[in-house]
């Protein structure tokens, strides 16, 4: 079971990095360097309020999840780790 979860988590991680790269126009090296504590909203100039809408849409499309408006908050977008945890939880629901 742990191997399956690790593989699932790694797949979500790769997809999330690709989404951030594509939506925000970041380069591969920058996205590859993200760790759980990497700041996102308020730290990346590319991730402004307009980019958040595109990011959420891509998350829904690529991860086949639904994000309700009341689930979106500053904590979810604060760090890469918090966004990854959110994406993993949403993917596990579906």
UniProtKB/TrEMBL annotation:
<feature type="domain" description="Carrier">
    <location>
        <begin position="10"/>
        <end position="91"/>
    </location>
</feature>
<dbReference type="Pfam" id="PF00550">
    <property type="entry name" value="PP-binding"/>
</dbReference>
<dbReference type="InterPro" id="IPR036736">
    <property type="entry name" value="ACP-like_sf"/>
</dbReference>
<protein>
    <submittedName>
        <fullName>Acyl carrier protein</fullName>
    </submittedName>
</protein>
<dbReference type="InterPro" id="IPR009081">
    <property type="entry name" value="PP-bd_ACP"/>
</dbReference>
């Amino acid at each position: 079971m742990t191997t399956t979860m690790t593989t699932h988590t790694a797949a979500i991680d790769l997809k999330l990095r690709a989404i951030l790269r594509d939506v925000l126009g970041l380069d591969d090296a920058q996205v590859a360097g993200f760790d759980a504590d990497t700041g996102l909203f308020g730290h990346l100039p590319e991730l402004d309020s307009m980019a958040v809408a595109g990011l959420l849409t891509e998350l829904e499309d690529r991860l086949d999840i639904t994000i309700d408006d009341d689930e979106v908050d500053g904590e979810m977008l604060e760090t890469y780790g918090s966004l990854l945890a959110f994406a993993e939880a949403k993917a596990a629901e579906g």
